[in-house]
Amino acid sequence: MVIEFADTNHIGKGFEEKKFKSSIGSYWRICSEYLMSKNLSLLSFVRVLISIFFLGSGFPAHATQVAVFAKFEWAQAKLKAKKLPHPRSFPVGDETSRVFNTLLQGERRVGFAALSQRVDLNLASSSLSSLPKAITDARTPDQIAQLPVVIKNFTYKEVRSSQDAGFVALVSGNERYRKDAMARMLALAALDPAGETGVVREDLSAMLVARTLALGLDWFYTYWTPLERKQLLQAISVRMEDFSAKLIHGPRAIEKFPLDSHNNEVLGALAEISVLLLGEIALADKWFDEFTPLYAKILTPFGGDDGGYANGTAYGGWDVGEFSLRHWDTLKRVIGLDLTQKTWAKNFGRFLVYFVPPGTPVGLFGNAAEVAMPETWARYAKAYSYRVDAPLYRWYARQWFQEDPTQLELLTAPVPAGGDVSYPVGTANSAVFQSIGWAALHSDLQDRARTSFYFKSSPYGSVSHSHADQNSFVLNVAGRQLLIDSGYYDYYGSKHHYGWSTHTLAHNAITFDGGQGQENLEKPWGDASAKGDILQFSTSEDVDMVLGDASAAYHGKLKQASRGIVYLRPNMFVIFDKVVSALPHYWEWNLHALNRFDDSDTKNLIVRNADKSACINFYSSAPVKFKQTDSFTVPPLRTSSERRPDQWHGQYKTNNQISDFWSITVIRVDCSAVSVRADFNAANAKIKIGSREFEFDGQTLVKRK
Fold first, then answer.
1. Domains of the chain, with CATH numbers?
2. Disulfide: which of 64, 587, 639, 688 matches 677 by Cβ 3.0-4.6 Å?
3. If we measure between CA atoms, which residue out of 365, 389, 339 comes closest to residue 439?
4. pLDDT band per the 50, 70, 90 thresholds, residue 137
5. pLDDT by residue (tens digit) across 605-648?
6. Where would I find the H helices in 84-202?
């Protein structure tokens, strides 16, 4: 039985103040240990026990329990799939007819025609012949370290060409395209499953090859000779058994260690392959039993039912948009398993809306957050909305226009019924995603010229593609980056990645004694214990407040590290900080930008990007000095195609070592004038800004006037 946990901490329309106390009882390490680290209420403890009993894995339990697929008949679904003729992924019926008709004469005809033209131009061309040379040409440590990415990119290019030609042939009946696709697939089947595209060497490439061959077998079933079918099935089987050994029976089985990005990206494909091959090979029954219910159960371990995705916006898009959506299509068409009914899947669109809003300059939090991806964001927005229909998602998809219409996640999607694409009345401008500890505060969500402030204090720590950046923030204004997450994702595990980008010092967060923060140098790949927690959130027409606690993230070195944010809509922010340690430290308040801070008056910094600016006023309980540099402690890998320019890193640092430190920072977008009075005492920090007053004691954030 599969159980889900619904999130009742959901922001409604208009003003609805809610203070959220995290009840996460367990997290999964990507490293080596299972962590339980919260003092749970009796109710939360019972929920965790229920989760462990029913899910067999102890996934974080959030609020009330909702049964989804609890009564799904897996045995009957398996029998149904075996009786279905090929192509199962596009079975004869109304839905397939609608999809094909819109490709040939409907609104997708332009994209399909362009895809057909590309297939025609690429007939008989292959990237696989260049792969051995690319491997042998890798000589420097950086080149050798990036070989898995090189292999995946070559593989991806070829499987894309194979699937493109195959899909055009399936829809149009063009024999030349079919023969080209089949020839490509046979070449893929000839690749050594113990070599570069094997599970051990490059698991994503192994998945891409196996899935492409399964789709090809399904699409052109009657055209393959018995010998060719055997070749395809053999190439698939070796990889599927290797995945079974790794994900199901290995020492780091996915149910015990679910916070692994690659394992989660491949699991959906393994479920899809299984249903396509049922009845064709005896092992498919085993694969179905191992992978398909498990995928329906997990779907993603990186967020709760609020739709959040803790592994960052880049990987959230790639995971769902690039991989999952088409898996969902096949599972629904073949066995009737509609994964869009999962609460997380229904709400993932809200995550996109709030953290990748139309016109955003870059992504947020984690690896590759610095990359602008307007084509993929547009494509994912539309592809998702085709499958998960809601007024907000229809509006969101309509705001994007840079997508490549030839991509298969668009062309293969179900044809939506359509509906109103206007912005839903009453949609909140700000939202919290409690399961991942992210908050988005917008001046006006539907306005591309919006001011956007993003805050993170995540219970997932710095695992997988996340960084050690709890209680950090990012500020964008009208599509311009003002205060940024610094650093680059040159490649996973690079000196810059492990030595700068993932560190607290690289973020708008607090460090001490020369840049010490939340990173665990013994586990540079990430640490689940470096976690934060959003304790309070409220939103109204003119004031938003959020409070995060990152005390646990500093590995016991600090007794308290709490940050409160007040947003005075539309253009002013107040940031309260309290840090406490048993030992005295030099405290460092870090901020980062693309351009040099104007520090002619260090009490009134100015950050600029093109035509947008903000003034930063810093008040503290102890004297500080400001300094800035445009140097990374470890520079990124720079090439002719990836120049990765320097960025600016500012820091307020206490003049002396002290154990307790309070600060209040006022950020005024466009440097609008306002009167400010900040006061500190042993119990709290207070600010009067204009006619309004706020108070922060490290545990709560209160509006006094």
1. 134-297 (1.50.10.100), 429-673 (2.70.98.70)
2. 688
3. 365
4. confident
5. 999 999 999 999 999 999 999 999 999 999 999 999 999 999 99
6. 94-105, 109-121, 131-136, 141-145, 147-172, 175-189
